[in-house]
Amino acid sequence: MNRNYVLAGVGGQGILFITRILHDAVLKEGHHVLVSETHGMAQRGGSVVSHVRVGSMQSPLVRAGTADGLLVFEADELPNTVSFLKPGGAAVVNGPDSARMPFQLSEYLKQLPAELHVLDASRIALETGAPLTANMILLGFSIERLAFPFSYEAVEDTVRNLSREPYREQNLKALASGYEAGSLGEKR
Amino acid sequence: MPNVESPGRRVMLGNEAMARGLLEAGCQVLCSYPGTPSSEILPAFVQLKREHDIDAYAEWSVNEKVAFDNAYAAALTGKRAACCMKQVGLNVACDSLMSAAYLGCVGGFVVISCDDPGPHSSQTEQDTRLMSLFAKAPAFDPSTPEEAIRMIARAFELSEAKRLPVIVRPAIRVCHAKQDIVQTRLASQPRKADFQKDPRRWAATPKFRYVLHEELNRKLAQIVSEPKWADGFNVQPIPDGEHRRAGIIAGGVPFVAVRDILDDAGVGSVPVMKVGMPNPYPRALLSDFCERCDKVLVVEETGAFLELILESKPGVCGRNTGHIPQEGELVPELLYGILSRFLDEALGQPLPRAMDPSLEKLLEEVKPAPRRPTLCPGCPHRAAFFAIRRRFPKAVFTSDIGCYTLGLNLGAVDTVLDMGAGVTMASGFYQAYHQDGNDRPIVATIGDSTFYHSGTAGLMNAVYNRARMLLVILDNKITAMTGMQPTPGLGIRADGGVGGRIPLERVVRGCGVDTVLTHDPYDVPGFSAALAQAEEAVEREGVAVLISEHPCIIAYRDQLESKRMNITDACDGCLLCVKRFECPAFEPIPGEKKVRIRETLCVGCGVCVHICPTGAIEAA
User: Fold this and answer.
1) How far A31 CA lies from chain B's nearest CA (Å)?
2) What's the mean pLDDT in B211-230?
3) CB of B584 within 8 Å of any CB in chain A?
4) Most buried residue, A114, B51, B291, B620, by CB count within 10 Å?
5) Contact A39 B10 (CB under 8 A)
């Protein structure tokens, strides 16, 4: 079983940190993992993309049309990365609502087909007084929606290990609230 | 999925893996100058030696040539040594590399030069394998972080056995890939420095260089004739006596990308020859493979290297036959199309269609707006560029390599050639205009780290040859773009230890410049006055330098005195703050002739107070 994920956003949104959490949680569950990251000039407010591949593949880049899950931290980056999704895949997008999406884009997702889940993680984070935890909320929300191959406990452990004080508790709280919002309940 | 849990297994960045590989191979000295995609190797080396209490030396050198020479000297004392850099950094060290191949070494000497197909963060897509051919230094081309570790070990063995420098060429998708890798114990190396004098060799005169050249050629011929060096890295998969209609030759990152695509598409039976040690050419193996196939596609990054020698063989195709583009990265979706067309041509069996045509059409209509990189909100360079542009609307602006290259967006950067050219091209422009008696104002910008790297020779030359130009050194107290490495101006060394501090001003004066001013660009009126003062000095003396001094707001986040900014009703939506000042924290309010501040992005530097034409921005 092989899985491909793409994460996209802009510099400063903590995407590299989320990437680290993902690959460590995947490893904790005993899977091989390959990642490709954006460093250097591309990070300076430009688009930041991470690829996370789980399984027996050898090259670090996800091929367009083969991603099981797409995690977009900045709605404007969806048009840039939507081509990675495979038919039957799912996207989680940080944004105010899905109604503002360009017609062609929603049409594309419908025809592919791919599920779209929109969550205004930036607003939620701002309301809780921790604006920088939007990435954690989004991660928690995606665990079930994007069917990541690890348990909530594995990712919680990883966040605990990788978070620096004084942000640890804040991150765990944000992760939990996102997870609750994204839980599929009996649908699973 | 296989269970791979193992106590020593950890996910590592390719650059971190290579640092590990260096220490596993007993490398005692590592020198580097930061450059994407190589920058994380040396810091990881420092961290690992600390964690494992290993006695190894690491330095950020002033530039790549300096790094090369320092490491090379260590290799002459019998120690294992390495230097690492990005591919265009090797241009700077090329003079040393060419000569070092002739002279050889005693302890193993490995040069890690990281390529950037794309390019993502470089001025060229040059291929280090061609540099290795030019210098006659063997080269390894890893496909994955894990393989890079093994290749570094082999490179040291080879370097020591044949006494010559060996290149390892990881591309960006190795450097910035991450993979789960088993950790091993690391231990200190006991070798002591013991330089055996032999001036006839180590200071060889041209007459003896001929002999050395002959010796080098013999070494290379030997390496090809001993299969152990390329064992496991150069693999010809077609069994004796068998023949195929289609075959693929690939090395480095494209090798694993091709493998993944073929396996994924269920055509894993198409033979793929792996070339992980491209120099010296595995001629016999390559010819063998080509003879066993009717048609061969050569897939390599970044240039045509293997294809150069295979071109004349029947049925070989690649970049030079139009099957593969001559530029850009071979990303998997592009490669998919290339492989599909080739297999269709050779076997009449294309790969399954990657995407439904109607979806493809929709996707084209989605047309993403590419997001161009910009200076961070609150970046001191933005303030400096804005003031420079306002003061010198008609100047030629030469600039250099670093974050501040993004002064492009503020109309204050006209040229970027390479490290140091901000200074040299400024004097060049001056002389070209001056020749016609038609002087133009010339304003050069260069960063602190870049100035230490390669600014001084150009500055001395400008003073010596009586150029008239203003040089603004953008001193943000760090090498920012590559990930916050210290500079000689800080007096902090690679391992955090205390180093000799070299103030910029002293260096500038040493280059013969009399007027050297220093000012904080955040103080917009004061900085503008300093520019005016510097302009007068240029009139008087020819070359003047203004040091724009303000620490990088990312590296020195805790020093930031943040103000809460407000936009008043005086805002008339002229968008100067969005378009000309280009601060990402400003955004137009949709449907109104007004601008608002994005709280999550604004760092409260307060520079914008001085740039708004209607004075609509104030600190709360």
Assistant:
1) 6
2) 97
3) yes
4) A114
5) no
Is the pLDDT at B6 greater than 80? The verdict is no
**A170 interfaces chain B, CB cutoff of 8 Å:** no
Per-residue CA distances from B35 to B57, B592, B617 (Å):
20, 43, 38
Q: How confident is the model at residue A101 (pLDDT cuts 50, 70, 90)?
A: confident
Distance CA B264, CA B285 (A): 27
Of B89, B228, B223, nearest to B166 (Cα)? B223
Q: A36 and B178 in contact by Cβ < 8 A?
A: yes
Which residues on chain B are in Cβ contact (under 8 Å) with A64?
332-333, 354-355
- At which residue do the structure tokens 């091993």 appear? B184
pLDDT average, residue stretch B552-578: 93
Q: How many angstroms separate the Cα of B614 from the Cα of each of B523, B538, B571, B588, B599?
A: 19, 33, 7, 16, 21
| pLDDT class of B7 with cuts at 50, 70, 90 | low
Closest CA to B584 of B561, B608, B566: B608
CA gap A168, A160 in Å, rounded: 6
DSSP state of B569: T
Closest CB from B121, B333, B482 relative to A63: B333
Give the H/E segment covering residue B289: helix B283-291
State which residue of chain A sits closest to B118, comparing Cα positions.
A42
Name the closest residue on chain A to residue B122, using Cα atoms.
A41
Q: Compare all CA atoms of chain B with the CA of A55 and give the residue at the minimum distance.
A: B1
Minimal C-alpha gap between B582 and chain A (Å): 12
Nearest alpha-carbon partner for B388 in B399, B377, B372 = B399
Establish, for the pair of chains A and B, how many residue pairs have beta carbons separated by less than 8 Å: 169
Question: Would an 8 Å CB–CB cutoff place A60 in contact with chain B?
Answer: yes
Q: Which amino acid is at A44?
A: R
Locate B412 and state its tokens: 């204050």
Tell how strand B415-416 and strand B442-447 pair up.
Answer: unpaired
> Does A176 contact B at CB distance below 8 Å?
no
* Residue-level pLDDT at B300: 97
Rounded to the nearest angstrom, the gap between the alpha carbon of residue B114 and the centroid of all alpha carbons in its chain is 7
Q: What tokens appear for B586 in the block?
A: 């400003």
B442 to chain A, closest Cα gap in Å: 27
Contacts of B40 in chain A (CB under 8 A): 39
- Integer Cα distance of A63 and A161 in angstroms: 31
The pLDDT value given to residue A44: 56
- 3-state SS record for B220-288: HHHHHHCHHHCCCCEECCCCCCCCEEEEEEECHHHHHHHHHHHHHCCCCCCCEEEECCCECCCHHHHHH
Question: pTM score, two decimals?
Answer: 0.94
Report the distance separating Cα A6 and Cα A27, nearest Å: 17
Separation of alpha carbons A177 and B6, rounded Å: 32
